[in-house]
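Subject: Sanity check before I submit

Could someone independently write out the structure tokens for this chain? I want to compare against mine line by line before I put it in a report. The sequence has 511 residues.
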Amino acid sequence: MSTSIASDSPLIRLHADDNVMIARYEIAAGETMDEPGITARAGISAGHKIATQAIASGAPVLRYGQVIGFASRDIEPGAHVHLHNLAMGDVSRDYAFCQDIRATKFADQPATFDGYLRADGRAGTRNYVAIVSSVNCSATVARHIADGFRFSGEMESYDNVDGVIALTHQGGCGLADSGEGFEILKRTLQGYADHPNVAAVLFLGLGCEVMQIGGLQRIDGLRAVKPVRSMTIQETGGTRQTIERATALIRELLPEVNQAKRGPIPVSKLCVALQCGGSDSYSGITANPALGYAVDRLVEQGGTAILSETPEIYGAEHLLTRRAASPEVAEKLIERIRWWEDYTRREGAEMNNNPSPGNKAGGITTILEKSLGAVAKGGTTNLVEVYEYAQAVTAKGFVYMDTPGYDPVAATGQVAGGANLVCFTTGRGSAFGSKPAPSLKLATNSPLYQRQAEDMDINCGTIITGEETLAECGERIFARILEMASGQPSKSEEFGYGDNEFVPWQLGATM
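---
Independent answer below. Compare away.
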């Protein structure tokens, strides 16, 4: 796709081979467009597709130069192309392992941000005390403790502490004490406790649950880099005594946590989670590729970016295997695709359960179309590693983590893996934020940005209007990433988002 789509045309052509174009704005029935010389046969909403030539029933429909589905009936030039005449079908994909790998050009001048350098060499973009609940049975107590600090005004005395957060969830018991579901939850809880944005941690359990605190605390070197405390409601004497004792413990820790100071840290210490939610047809034209440009800048600085949401890269995975740094990395990604195909089959579902109703209203018709736009968030550098859900991310560069497509679950896995910042694109207006990793919200179109200006950090709709190129918008995103990593609050932080967005992936039987 071109780095600039500025044009007087009401239509956007994304690739020379495409047989559809995208409406830049709402097009009336009967309106004639000089390029490609067609007349709209019906009204076309902004962001939706219009056929530029006759497409026979069963023939492939191309966007981005890629197959996004097949005509379910004959389509005439100028016709609206969407759910009524475009359907999924079997698509042959050439994975071409490692075919497009290229040497990464690293920046000559290292950039920095102002963050918290931790004892183990990692960097925090925020400075939190976290209460990690081992089981749902301790969730209410954990929330009560955190709310006591949140609403009392007590935290105003600690300028360098971003808050006390309660990481609560629906699991921790009624599951097997081994296996996939147990290990995923354990990894997630441990990843948050060990997170560089968490300066001190209190593990809080009921006492009799399957997910025992003793097992959670076994993280190599954790106590050497931050204060760690633990208690259970049963051993402490019940709800009131646990709240009182835990509050006193945290009050003892706060002066120490407050001693942390921001200072210049290389951008190579940043690990950014890439997310999209409430996508529209513009997502793959504006915010996603602009974020991809910023990701390339991050990788050039030695930083890390994590793409995820396997059901939402389905059908576009060949674009990633071609960039895999090795055949082994490519095969890891395909193995996760196969796992999802088997998983959805067992559950009586299919991978094309996406797009959502909001995606469809925004002009996205099939999961292939959605996925091709979604992978643009990953930029153009080599795919250096593939991780399972909530695994610790240690590689530098562009990596992939296997997660569901549901945004809170996906982001929870990425943050558990070590992401100290989240970039989240949206075209319909997703409401999201996370703790302890702040979330930058990128609007794909100007009407959304104007409508939800209090929620959106950056407007990428300027690409559609021709006010900016992709590169210019990408540079603006990269600059804002550094500002937010240095402590500038995001819009979602100002609203207090993040307490309910910790959602570990639940797998396996609940017993």
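---
OP: Matches mine. For the report I'm noting this point. The longest helix spans residues 327-346.
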